[in-house]
Structures are given as structure tokens and as C-alpha cells.
Amino acid sequence: MNAAIEKGLSHADQTKVVEVGRGVLARVGEIVRDSMDVGEASVLVVADERTWAAAGEAVDASLRAAGLRVEDALIFPGTPALYAAYEHCETIRERLRETGSLGVAVGAGTLNDLVKLASGELEQPYTVVGTAASMDGYTGFGAPMTRDGVKVTMPCPAPQVVIFDLDVAAAAPPNMVGSGYGDLSAKIPGGADWLLSDAVGWEPLHPLAWELVQGGVAEALARPADLAAGDPDAYAGLVNGLILSGLSMQVYGGTRPASGAEHYFSHLWELDHLGQDWEPPLSHGFKVAIGTLAMSAFYERFFLRDVTAEAVEKAIVGWPAWETIEADIRSRLSGTLADHCAKETRAKYIEAPALRERLTQVLDSWGTLKPQLEKQLIPARELQAMLKAAGAPSVPEDIGITAATVKDTFLSAAYYRSRYSVLDLARELGWFDELVDEVFAPGGLWSELSPLD
Ligand SMILES: [Zn+2]
User: Fold this and answer.
1) Residue 206's Cα: distance from chain center in Å?
2) Inter-residue contact 151 to 16 (CB < 8 Å)
3) Angle 451-452-453 (CA atoms, 0-180°, nearest 5)?
4) Fewer Cβ within 10 Å of end Cβ, the chain: N or C?
């Protein structure tokens, strides 16, 4: 087993076993029998028509061959793509309950989330056999779910056993690896945001969670073209990186290790139902890829300025009262999103004297902090080329929006969460609007490809 995963598992309290490799599909039965607390229970494979064909049938056979009692598989239709709707979770939960079985999910994000929640509600363990390197939620806890028309993340434990056959991952539709690559690329600017948040004392770095999530990122992103070409050996790095990202969230007890401001772009577009009616629906990782590039470009513009004593002085003088910020939020956003952003931004708002302290702290550490952040980041154009090679989005048009929409999303992203990011530091320094303009100015990352209107 990958040493980092082993280390993660020894600290994670939910996932006990991870098996990643070529050909592990044939050993699923043994692994489940020996690693999951099956006891007297039977097992139930949950798949859709596509994942059944890709791996489900083999999983079912392997479970039987290992001597487990296997119920008739629960197979959802393959088209339209299965949706993480609570009613599907109820279907799975009731089948598990009626048959007294433990779930073995065969699929990617949606199937894993559905079986995770159904098992969580029954307080029983489950196994996931991943079929695509499409996101980092395999080893994460909690399940994003649509219930009564609203998308919420419902609490439930991570899988007890995670199995990933690299040959299966490599044969998955190409947009899925692009999505996983996009989700993992987020750890670059997301990590920089965490370093920054740590530096101002807002969210201290958790050394083990940091090591787990960041340790494997370079290897995971190293072979984008081989991933797109479906080379199974190239998938080891990416799959391990995605699994480690989920484990780091388990160890940390939250999503901080795996997401920074780049994820807020994705969340905000999701609230707008962007690409939800696509077939298949626009994935999390695709939206995150564009958020990641936006944030990488923002960091680059930020670094062209210097945090100086004069800049700090100027920032304190210009720092608005909370009422002014709230009025700005409400003038740009409306409804529940405005309320949400006002609440989140209020939580991280500080008065001028505290801001002086914070910015002085940044100023004093800038000589070491800036190189640390620069080392963490990948130049936006380089990252753009890597995403493109992996089949992930590299321009806003790839996800059906324009550069102007990305530009508009910057401000909502800054207000969206109480978490601290470079967007906050830029706001506090009074640089925010100018930096956003610079990102989208001629010569910028997307200016030639998608001129502003
Ligand atoms: Zn993500």
C-alpha cells in the first residue's frame, strides 16, 4: 500500500482499508470478506447500468466466489445519469434494510454518496469500488444530496473499505478523469489559501492533514496527457491523490485541507444550476478547474505588488465599517445568498485596530511567506496547459460561461465563506477590485480567448 495512505488510515477513524492497483477487481470479494465487518449480514451491490458493465458484474461475481452471501444487485438506469437525490438514497436504504445486507457501491461520486448516506442512516459500514478518478469524495465523510429541491450536505461516515482498480479507472469516460484532475488541481491554490490563513492565525495548519493532501499532489498532476490517453499506470498517482485528499478531510474533520476560494466559484455556479441540464451534468471538478485557474491568476497579480508599511497604513485608513461592507454585499447579491454572504463575511470581519495587527503580522512575515506561497503555486498558464492536456476545462467557455461571468463571481467568492483566503487579504489591503481587473485585462489568462464585452 502507498505509504502516505497507510499513514492516513492509521489516523482516520472511519476508513479502515484502501486497496488501489491494477487488477484488484478480481480480489474485491476477498478484500470485503476480510476487511469489512460483514458478520452475519449479506452484501448488496449497488450500481447503475454503466458501472455494472464496467465493474459491477465482476464485483458481484468476486463477492460470490469469496463465499459471501450476495443479494440480487440493485442496478439503476444508466441514462439519464443518476442524480444524488434523496429518494434514490431511500430506495437503497430500504433494500439494505429489507435484506439485512451491507452495501457495496460500484461507481463514482453519485453512487458513492447515495450508498454512503443510506448506510449512514442505518449505522452500518459499506464498501465502495470506485470506477472513475473523478473527484476526491470517495474517502470523505458527508454526502451532498438534493432533498426537497435543495442541495445540502448530509452528515454520514466515510466508507469502511475503498477499492480502486486502475484498469477500470483508465477505461472510464474521458470527462471523468478531467473532472478528478480539476478537483485535485484545486489543492494548489487551495493550499496557498490555507498557508495564508495559517499565517494570519485564522485557521492553523494541521500538519498531518497538510502532509496527506499536499504530499501526493505533484505526482497526481504529473502525467495529464497519459491520463487522457487512458494509460492505467498513470492513474496510480491521481487515484492515490484523490484518496489522500479525502483521508485528509477525515483526519482534519472538515473540508479545509481540500478546498480554498477556488471551490467557492464552483459552489456559486452550482447554486445557479450551471450545466445541471447537461448530459452528463457538468461535474464538480470541471467547475473547480476554472475556479482554480482564476485563483492562480489572482495570486500572480497579487505577487506583483508588495506588502509594505505604506500599503498597510493606507489599508487601515481606507478600511470600511461593517455596515458599508454589508450594504455592498446586499447591493450586489440578493435573497438568501445575500443573507448567507453577509453572515459569513461578518464572521471574518475585524475592526481597524485588529486589522492593523493582522496586516502588520503579514508584513513582518512577508519575506518568508511570499516565497512559501510562490513555491506552493503553479503558474496559471502552466496549470492551464496541464488541465487542457488532461481533458479538463481550461477556458470558461469549456463550462458554458464567459470570462465576464468568472470576473463577476470573484466578489461573491470573497464574501461566500468565513474562511480566509487571498481574496480577503486583497480586500483588506484595498487591492481587490484592481487585482480582479488585472486578471481579466488584455494579455491575461483568458483575454485573447474570451474578450470581455
Ligand atoms: Zn472538490
Assistant:
1) 18
2) no
3) 115
4) C
Instruction: Identify the bridge partners of residue 146 per DSSP, sorted by sequence position.
Output: 85, 151
Cβ neighbors of 321 (< 8 A, separation 6 or more) are none
Beta bridge partners of 147: 150
The CA distance from 120 to 131, in Å, is 21
The Å distance, Cα 104 to ligand 1 centre, comes to 23
**Structural domains of the chain, with CATH:** 3-172 (3.40.50.1970), 175-202+259-439 (1.20.1090)
Residue 12 CB burial class (10 angstroms; 0-12, 13-18, ≥19) = buried
pLDDT at position 115 is 98
449 vs 266, 406, 446, 452, CA distance in Å? 21, 14, 5, 10
Phi, psi for residue 14 in degrees, rounded to 5: -115, -55
Ligand 1 centroid to residue 288 C-alpha, Å: 7
Q: Compute the distance from residue 276 Cα to the ligand 1 centre, in Å.
A: 17
Spacing, Cα 102 to ligand 1 middle (Å)? 27
Per-residue cell: 426: 486583497
d(CA 425, CA 419) in angstroms, rounded, equals 12
Ligand 1 center to residue 215 CA distance, Å?
17
Q: How far apart are CA 115 and CA 422, in angstroms?
A: 37
Give pLDDT < 50 ranges for the chain: 450-453
Q: Looking at residue 452, what is its pLDDT?
A: 42
Question: What 3-state DSSP class applies to 194?
Answer: helix
Which DSSP helix (H) or strand (E) runs through 89? helix 86-99
Q: Is the peptide bond before 224 cis (omega within 30 degrees of 0)?
A: no
Strand partners, 150: 147
- Counting Cβ atoms within 10 Å, is residue 353 exposed (0-12), middle (13-18) or buried (19+)? exposed
Residue 213 amino acid letter: V
Using alpha carbons, select from 216, 230, 220, 245 the residue that is nearest to residue 166: 230
Cα distances (Å, whole numbers) of residue 109 to 18, 133, 267? 17, 9, 16
Q: Which helix (H) or strand (E) holds 59?
A: helix 57-65
213 CA to middle of ligand 1, Å? 12
Q: What is the pLDDT of residue 150?
A: 75
- Number of helices (H), then strands (E), belonging to the chain: the values are 23, 8
d(C-alpha 232, C-alpha 97), whole Å: 37
Q: How far apart are CA 283 and CA 280, in angstroms?
A: 8
Q: State in Å: Cα 259 to ligand 1 middle.
A: 6
Q: Give the per-residue pLDDT at 448.
A: 56
77 sits in which H/E element: none
Q: How many CB atoms lie within 10 A of CB 442?
A: 8
Q: Which three cell numbers stand for residue 240?
A: 492515490
